[in-house]
Design brief:
Residues 1136-1156 are annotated as: Disordered. The chain is mainly beta. Strands 1, 2, 3, 5, 10, 11 and 12 form a 7-stranded antiparallel sheet that branches. Strands 4, 8, 9, 13, 14 and 15 form a 6-stranded mixed sheet that branches. The relative contact order is 0.05.
């Protein structure tokens, strides 16, 4: 039920939601506990029902007025007070949101006025304190709208939302706002005229002005019919928003004779308020008139300063060289102020005096507000990682034309930040977003706001830990553990030892002095700050044992050598006295072989098939738009995002290539746009960071095309390729690009002409120019047919790409056209820049000249510019055509050049963009790098900063001499393969300018690089070394680049000398032992064999005894071992002869061709693996086979080695060879028998 009560202008809105009493159906048992249950249930439902009914009167929204009327350009405040219960259902009421809106979106959701683009910079919402009386609370909220426009007329609604169920309430009805203008209505009665100030706003006090001077205060005003004065009215309190001035005599002449009535004294300002950026310039204009019989003495602009006498701005020292009056038309005056400052914010008025009247300028003129830019960070400038941060570029007033904004982080522009919104949203914010931010308006990138610092706090990342010194730690030494972690604020550190609660040291470094064996173990650090904490990985500290004596070391060394020698001796004797491992021949059924062949084939094919099918839904390419329309000469960005699985079939996905293309070659291979000659120097491709969420990854790639041409209209496709099988995907459909020009279409209707800006690109904001000066915005424009003006149009944001100027009738209007908008010319050459111009033939031409466009500076003739002295001239010109020639071009000549002329009644200002000249040099770029290895592919590219015209041919030079056959229209020199003969200095030039070479770029070619071979070592002097003498160890290894050497002594970490030679002076017994050197370069490393150095006459007696004892034991064991093996061989020979006869009568086992076929099938997907030597193959698994012997089992005959049988064709008894050696990628593991397998090791 809604109750509305209107009392005066007070509207009270009560919103409620009634509920019907619940239908209670109770089935109660005769038992007592059931009766209690029913009673409790009924009481509970009745309580909830009456609670729902109670207190609905506590929810109200009351607005101060249901209807508000305000003047265009003024400010209006609309207020509403809302009321709500402090508590309901034992839940305290909290106001979650307040909202002002005038319209809803497609989903019927209110559009917040604060985020409505039509109100940007003009609205503010504020709420007062909450006031609670008894159990009810209320709060007042106010909406302020500045610089009201006619389009602001609407019904404004207020809504608030709470945490209570259904606690969302809206004012009903809202507040109806009417925005109106003031108009003077004239009605004649005899010789008198009644003037009435017409406005939709009633009950306003009206003020009247006569010739700009205040005369009276009343609703209407009577004047005599033949008055030459002008009259206007205003509402008290809003005097600056006065009506346009009207002339009684003008109206009389218009109605009586049909003559135009411009003969009264009046001044009109088309724009009442202006908001302009500090540092730029502004044009403030007005129209004025006076009786034709009155002579005009003077006219000027002045700054309104209350009761001070007006003074001409051009003579004001505050505006020296900054205020000027451009050449004016009759009845129109313009004030131009350059290099605007904060102090220029004021009201500017126009004044003139004739022989009959002086216009005092009491009527309000144009109010100028000069604003700077500032950055506001929401919610605060110091945030935590993961929050949402909004940066807003703020001005004190809304700038005209809704400009685009550019954002900068740490003085670099933020990619993709240019947009018509003045906000940069970082969601979620991360450490990479921290820094100093500033903003600028697109057309004024040099006028940046002061920087605002954004601080992003985040928890410590995974700490890295280290120990000094590294490796094994000697007992008694000192050890320092270090921990570091990226964190903001800086992390605090605490050290812990696993399974030891006694360690809990604080600090980034933890030092243990006089370390003992008890200190060994795993250590880790804990990094923490106010945001979070992180634990490092464990760091293991190992202590080296120092208790072994020299005797113990010697005995252990001899013992190890003894055991090694015995093992090798046993292997040698066994190999020489026994036969090779038997070749096991299996006579198996043919069907068994075929079955195995089929099984392997099916398994392999199924694996490949399901690999191709798996995960196709994870492969996508999505482009931002399927159709793009851009202007010729502009730059377009086309973006596509591709998605792929992070891993598939245990193979991590790697993106190998990204490619943009529009066409394919004869082999249906895409032609990369980066290598397409039609796009040379105009395209760039870039890809963002890879983002992985869950098991899926995506990446955005952007293609930028500069200086668009009509021929660029095409469908652009994006393709990416990965290392997965079938992992190549293309966007479908691609992005269709339409490149269009602007044209002004003229259609005549009666005595007027309708001008329309024709373009294929829809929904563009059109800007109109008249005689090269900014005129207005709109899709079309109307003018009289007999106009001598020229018109052109442009799209906002692309003003330099304006249409050609057109005349409404004939070709004799005022206009300038530039046939070429952009030019790229080589430094040191010359250029001709031309234009065509026209003007009415009856007007005398005073002068013409070219100038270099310098923002906010007056044009000056280039021939008089000292920067161009002796380099600029205007060749003999044809009528209506002018040419600028600049010789000896320099980098500083890169600029925009415009043409201007002056005739009797007009001066072409040159505001329309002219021809932009870019002067470029040449430079050589070497790909991949300037230092390469022999055999690589090297590409040298002759680069310019912009594409030169006419696709010139290039000449290459090596060591100042031309490279034979290098002259071609391509700007690249390819060396494939590169060799030592290609090393040297390279430069390039354009064919017609061989003297203008690029700076030289040096190409270094290194011979084929290889890791060090096994180093050879020597000692000088050789043999036994006498104690006290000098010894030199030498090491050499074949390597490229040359190896570095380090010397080590076995079991002694104290030696680590660098250098090819290592000299030991005063050699002692402690220095004796095994030495080796370590050779390394950038490709690899290698250790030498051991070099033993013996010192004579100084061995200890204890060591000698120990070594001698071990040697005697060694000889004894070897003798007994030889006797045992000889006897065993003799018995084995006798047994073999008794069973098989002579060993040389055995038959060799031939390879089975069926198994060869299987090997060929299963290895077809990996030919490289077949060719790879066995020694180089990884992960070789040795399989052993156990052969059981039973009475019922036939043991296959095993053959001895046959001269026709190779290791690769031998078969194990009972098993086909392909089960032991076949390798199917991804399906069957690789299994191979060892080359030499002892029979007693064949035990599976």
């Amino acid at each position: 039920m809604f109750l509305s009560q209107l009392s005066g202008q007070q509207v009270s809105v009560v919103s409620s939601s009634t509920q019907q009493p619940p239908s209670l159906h109770v089935s109660c048992d005769h038992a007592f506990h059931q009766l209690n249950l029913c009673v409790l249930f009924i009481l509970n439902e009745m309580c909830l029902f009456f609670t729902a009914l109670q207190g609905n009167d506590d929810w109200t929204v009351t607005c101060t007025s249901s209807n508000v009327c305000s003047l265009r350009g003024s400010t209006v405040d609309i207020s509403c007070t809302f009321k709500y219960p402090e508590k309901q259902h034992d839940l305290s009421t909290t106001v979650l949101e307040t909202l002002w809106f005038s319209k809803e979106d497609r989903n019927h959701k209110p559009v917040d006025l604060l985020s409505d683009a039509d109100y940007t910079g003009r609205v503010e919402s504020s709420c007062g304190e909450i006031s609670c009386i008894g159990s009810s609370c209320n709060r007042k909220c106010t909406l302020s709208i500045r610089d009201l426009r006619q389009s602001d007329s609407a019904v404004y609604n207020f809504r608030f939302k709470t945490n209570q169920p259904g606690g969302e309430h809206t004012a009903n009805p809202g507040v109806a706002l009417s925005v109106t203008d003031l108009q003077v209505k004239v009605s004649r009665q005899g010789n008198w005229t009644n003037l009435e100030c017409d406005s939709m706003c009633a009950n306003a006090t009206i003020i009247w002005y006569n010739n700009g001077q205040r005369v009276t205060q009343r609703r209407s005003y009577w004047v005599y019919m033949n008055s030459f004065n002008s009259y206007s009215c205003a509402v008290e309190g809003y005097e600056r928003l006065h009506s346009p001035s009207v002339s009684i005599m003008a109206l009389f002449l218009k109605y009586s004779s049909g003559l135009p009535g411009n003969s009264c004294n009046r001044v009109s300002y088309p724009t009442r308020t202006m908001c302009v950026l500090q540092g730029t310039s502004v044009d403030i204009s007005c129209t004025y008139s006076h009786p034709q019989y009155a002579k005009l003495y003077y006219k000027y602009w002045f700054k309104w300063r209350g009761n001070q006498e007006p003074s001409d701005l051009q003579s004001d020292s505050e505006y020296e060289r900054r205020a000027e009056y451009p050449v004016e038309e009759t009845g129109r005056s313009t004030l131009r102020i350059t290099d605007l400052r904060d102090t220029d914010s004021a009201e500017y008025c126009f004044k003139f005096e004739t022989s009959k009247h002086e216009w005092k300028g009491s009527l309000h003129g144009t109010t100028l507000t000069v604003t700077g830019l500032s950055v506001e960070v929401t919610p605060v400038a110091t945030v935590t990682e993961g929050q949402r941060v909004t940066l807003t570029c703020i001005t004190s007033c809304p700038l005209a034309d809704k400009p685009s904004y550019i954002w900068y982080q740490n003085n670099g522009s933020v990619n993709g930040s240019e947009n018509p919104e003045n906000q940069l949203v970082l969601d979620p914010v991360g450490p990479q977003h921290a820094g100093s931010y500033s903003c600028s308006v697109r057309n004024y990138p040099h006028l940046r706001s002061p920087e605002e610092t954004l601080t992003v706090q985040y928890a410590p990342k995974t700490p890295s830990v280290s120990v000094s010194p590294s490796g094994e730690i000697a007992e008694g030494s000192s050890v320092t553990l270090s921990c570091s972690s990226d964190a903001n604020p800086a992390a605090n550190y605490t050290w812990f030892k696993e399974h030891d609660d006694s360690v809990g040291e604080s600090g980034q470094n933890y030092t243990i002095i006089n370390i003992t064996s008890e200190h060994g173990g795993h250590y880790y650090c804990h990094a923490h700050n106010a945001i979070g904490h992180q634990k490092s990985t464990s760091l293991f500290i190992f202590l080296k044992d120092q208790s072994s004596s020299q005797t113990t070391v010697a005995v252990k060394t001899v013992a190890v050598l003894l055991v090694t020698m015995v093992i090798f001796l046993l292997i040698f004797l066994w190999m020489s006295s026994t036969q090779q491992p038997p070749s096991l021949h299996v006579s198996c059924d043919h069907a068994f072989h075929q079955l195995n062949l089929c099984v392997l084939f099916i398994l392999n094919e199924m694996c490949l098939f399901f690999t191709a099918l798996q995960g196709n839904d994870d492969w996508t390419v999505t482009c931002t738009s399927s159709n793009v329309c851009s202007l010729r000469g502009s730059t377009v960005d086309i973006s596509c995002t591709f998605k792929y699985p992070e891993k598939q079939h245990d193979l991590s996905t790697t993106v190998l290539e990204t490619l943009w293309f529009t066409e394919e070659d004869r082999n249906q291979t895409p032609v990369d746009l980066l290598s397409d000659a039609d796009y040379t120097g105009r395209v760039e491709s870039s890809c963002g960071e890879i983002s992985c969420i869950g098991s899926s990854c995506n990446r955005k790639c952007t293609l930028s095309i500069r200086d668009l041409r009509q021929s660029d209209s095409a469908v652009y496709n994006f393709r990416f390729k990965t290392n997965q099988p079938g992992g190549e995907h293309t966007a479908n459909p691609g992005v269709a690009l339409n490149v269009t020009d602007l044209q002004v279409k003229v259609s005549l209707q009666d005595n007027k002409a309708n001008l329309e800006c024709d373009s294929m690109c829809a929904n563009a904001t059109i800007i109109w120019y008249i005689n090269g000066q900014y005129l207005a915005q709109g899709r079309s424009y109307w003018d009289y047919i007999n106009s001598i003006n020229s018109y052109s149009c442009a799209v906002e944001g692309y003003k330099r790409l304006h249409s050609p100027s057109v005349c409404i009738q004939g070709n004799n209007c005022n206009r300038v056209s530039y046939p070429t908008r952009t030019m790229c010319v080589l430094q040191g050459t010359s250029v001709d820049i031309s234009c065509t111009y026209s003007h009415p033939p009856d007007d005398k031409l005073y002068y013409t000249y070219w100038f270099k466009w310098r923002a906010n500076q007056k044009p000056s003739d280039l021939q008089a510019d000292s920067e161009y002295e002796g380099r600029v001239k205007y060749p003999v010109e044809e009528t209506g055509r002018s040419t600028l020639r600049i010789t000896d071009l320099r980098h500083t000549d890169s600029a925009e050049y415009r043409f201007t002329f002056k005739i009797s009644y007009h001066e072409w200002k040159g505001s329309l963009h002219g021809t932009t000249l870019t002067v470029t040099g040449l430079r050589v770029e070497v790909t991949p790098v300037a230092t390469v290895t022999e055999g690589q592919r090297v590409t040298l590219t002759c680069i310019t900063s912009c594409p030169l015209a006419d696709k010139p041919s290039y000449i290459w030079y090596q060591n100042n001499g031309p490279v034979t056959g290098s002259e071609n229209p391509e700007n690249q020199l390819v060396l494939d393969p590169v060799g030592p003969q290609h090393a040297g200095s390279y430069s390039c030039s354009v064919r017609n300018y061989p003297h203008l070479r690029s700076p030289e770029e040096t190409l270094t070619v290194q011979c084929t690089m290889n890791a060090p071979k096994t180093p050879s070592v020597s000692v000088s002097p050789s043999g036994e070394i006498a104690e006290g003498s000098s010894v030199t160890l030498s090491c050499s290894s074949d390597a490229n680049p040359a190896a570095n050497y380090t010397w080590f002594k076995e079991h002694d970490d104290s030696v680590g000398e660098s250098g090819q030679n290592y000299t030991i002076t005063n050699f002692t017994s402690e220095l004796g032992g095994h030495y080796y050197c370590h050779a390394r370069n950038a490709i690899g490393r290698h250790n030498s064999t051991l070099l033993f150095i013996n010192v004579t006459g100084q061995s200890s007696s204890l060591t000698t005894v120990a070594v001698g004892t071990v040697a005697v034991l060694l000889v004894t064991m070897v003798i007994f071992l030889l006797i045992f093996l000889w006897m065993r061989r003799k018995r084995a020979s006798r047994k073999a002869c008794g069973q098989r006869g002579r060993p040389d009568t055995g038959e060799g086992s031939l390879p089975d061709p069926e198994y060869d076929d299987i090997l060929h099938l299963t290895n077809r997907s990996s030919p490289a693996a077949q060719r790879k030597p066995i020694e180089e193959q990884d992960d070789i698994h040795n399989a052993t086979i156990h052969i059981s012997h039973s009475e019922d089992q036939e043991v296959p005959h095993c053959w001895a080695d046959s001269p026709d049988q190779s290791d690769h064709t031998k078969q194990a008894c009972g098993f086909p060879s392909f089960w032991l050696s076949a390798a199917v990628q991804g399906c069957v593991p690789i299994v191979r028998l060892p080359r030499f397998t002892s029979p007693f090791l064949l035990n599976l």
